[in-house]
Amino acid sequence: MKRNFIYSLLLLFLVISCKKNEGGTQLPYDYSIPQEEDLAEIINTTAWNTKTVADGVVWKYYQFPRIFDSKQYVNVFEIDLKKGMQLEIPYVKTGFLKTSTAATAKGALVAFNGSYFNTSTGGSTVFFKYDGQVINQTVNGFNSYRENGAFTFTGQSYQIVPKPAGGWGTLSATAALAGGPLLMQNGQVLEQLNVDFNTSRHPRTAVGLTKDNKLIVAVIDGRSSQSQGLTIPQLGELMAALGCTSALNYDGGGSSTAWVKGEGVVNYPSDNGKFDHEGERAVATVFTVK
């Protein structure tokens, strides 16, 4: 009788053990190991939330559960420049201008923040030319790697160019806004300096051009558990995966803002320390498209 009782206990233990392991054992995951991923494939197969804002202007967004080993909330504008879109750069010489304010005043379809500015007094701190007039030169002492490229346009001709050897004054384009680092040129992602600005994760705003003459704008949120932000090398990889052949980083951090007509601010600007749509930072230059 005693022996049968022991056998019964052993059998019960085995049954319970088998049931516990039916799903396998979940082992701890080491997130310090770089993720093996085909970023272009992920980008192209993602079920983006997509809205056609107007003919030639598409807005899409998605919260990736895991790219670059982290959560990332990404907004993208795809603007077909062959459709004759009107691109403008509202600006202030002193003081500050919100992206949303500029967008509403211009009757824009979409809008996004521009380049670096003086956070105390306002106004651009990098080279800015508009309607053929130089509005600002890059201020003395500004980090050269953050103004080593510019988005330029003359009429319906758009380019992303490196800083000329002879300086910004040699540009013939009627409009140019410097920024940096330059992320891509001639279809290649560029090497970047090993400095904190480049290697830390932050919210980012970048522009890029494709072979078929589309302007790609990417606004990546950061400084949140819901979206950690990107390094500059990661941003270059993302712009390549989005199909760009040239790309440029603009002001990020709390400045990174994406705005859509009828929606308002659609990303999660970080300037208020919350993951909501209210943390928009006023800047000096804004891009509007209509």
UniProtKB/TrEMBL annotation:
<dbReference type="InterPro" id="IPR018711">
    <property type="entry name" value="NAGPA"/>
</dbReference>
<protein>
    <submittedName>
        <fullName>Phosphodiester glycosidase family protein</fullName>
    </submittedName>
</protein>
<dbReference type="Pfam" id="PF09992">
    <property type="entry name" value="NAGPA"/>
</dbReference>
<keyword id="KW-0326">Glycosidase</keyword>
<dbReference type="GO" id="GO:0016798">
    <property type="term" value="F:hydrolase activity, acting on glycosyl bonds"/>
</dbReference>
<feature type="domain" description="Phosphodiester glycosidase">
    <location>
        <begin position="107"/>
        <end position="289"/>
    </location>
</feature>
<keyword id="KW-0378">Hydrolase</keyword>
